[in-house]
Structure formats: structure tokens, C-alpha cells
Amino acid sequence: MERDRSAPADGDTGRIAPVYRAVMAAAMPIVRWWGRLEVAGLQHLPAHGATIVAANHDSAWDPVVIAFAARRRRQIRALAKDSLWKNPLLRRVLDGMGQIPVRRGQADTGALDAAVRCLSTGGCLGIFPEGTRSQGRQLRARSGVGRLAHAVPQARIVCAAVSGTVDIARFPRRPRLKVTFFEPTPPPPSESPLELSTRLTAELRAVAPVATSGRRA
Predict the structure, then answer these.
(1) What does the buried/exposed string (b/e) look like for 87-102 if buried means 16 or more CB atoms within 10 Å of the residue's CB?
(2) C-alpha distance from residue 206 to each of 121, 159, 162, 193 (Å)
């Protein structure tokens, strides 16, 4: 049975959900202490109101690291692949965090509607313009973030360039994590959703170039 993606999350009202806080606390030893996280530009992330956080994606750790970097200002709901909900325990955690399942490779109007509702109620939504992990490749942007921005024009867009996350899996090599929040350049007139996504991806990759995941000798 598919979960109800229309249910509002605590992040929509400016409160941080207990499950979200618990996940951030569990991530602290790896992200802050072992990963030596550096956060720059946090002042660009609005503390309230509809906000789209667009980020690059090289590692499965990216959503956690970005959420941890933003935790003092916002709870970030995110679009995540629906296969993660197959694990009953993980499903409870994801639902408690207000995450939104999306079916990859197809037009998932339910996920888009849920994302629009999140933003329309003043929530903060995280999305990867590239759609999936880069795996060391330069990927083309997808139109999703542009479609959301056009659907909720009052939403502010903030970029989150994350780096160092691929090194978390390279133990005993110690990673050096960094998340840089910044405002994208103003859009040109009549910018299409795909053009917006492409521009955001280029600006993100200018700060955080594609990194290859996995171990290195």
C-alpha cells in the first residue's frame, strides 16, 4: 500500500520533527567529528517560507550532510527514490522525516504534487537537479527543479554545493566535508524549467566539481 504523500510534515510549519532531530544526532559523529564539516553561506538559507534547496549529488551521504549543515535553520524535506520505502524500518524513518518518495524514470505526478504542497505551505524542499548520483560522470540536468520553481514562483531558490562526501566510504582516509549555501544568479527573462535546472547545475558544479565515489588506493 502506497503511503499518503499528501500528509503535511512538521517542517511545513517551521518545527523540526523529532525523528529528523534523532537522525541528525545519529549523524553527528560521522559528519561533524569524523568528517570535519565546514559550512559556508548558511545565512543565504531562509529560516522561514517556501524554499527550494538545489544541490549537486555525488554520494549517498549528500542528503544527510546537507540536512546536517542546515539543521539550525531548517528541516529539509527531500525527494528520494521510492525503493527506499521497501525496508519497513527505513520507511518509518523516512516518513518521520517528511521525505517524499518518487518513482524514477517515469512521470511521477504524485511526487510532484506532494512537493508543490510542501512548498505552498511554506516548507523547505531539497532536490538534486541532476536527478541521481553522478558516479564520476557529468550528468545533464533534469527539469524537475525548474518545474517546481515555476509551479511555486514565490519559493526562494538556494544552492547547496556539497563536497568531500565520497571520501566517507574511503576509511581510514578521513574526509573533509564542506557545504556551501549560495544564491544562484538572477534568472533571465522567459527561462524555461529545463534552462533553469541547467543553469543551477552549472553553478553548483562550478563550486563542487564531479567527484568519483568508491575507494581509492
Answers:
(1) eeeeeebbbbbbbbbb
(2) 32, 12, 11, 20
Interval 50-79: pLDDT, tens: 999 999 999 999 999 999 999 999 999 998
Which residue reads 567529528 in cell numbers? 33
- For the chain, residues with pLDDT lower than 70 are 1-14, 105-107, 213-217
| H/E stretch holding 205 | helix 193-207
| CA-based R_g, the chain, Å | 16
Q: Which residue carries 544527510 as its cell? A: 64
Q: Is 52 left (phi over 0), alpha (psi -120 to 50) or beta?
A: beta
CB of 117 closer than 8 Å to CB of 5: no
pTM, to two decimals: 0.90
- Over the stretch 140-153, which tens digit does the pLDDT of each residue have? 999 999 999 999 99
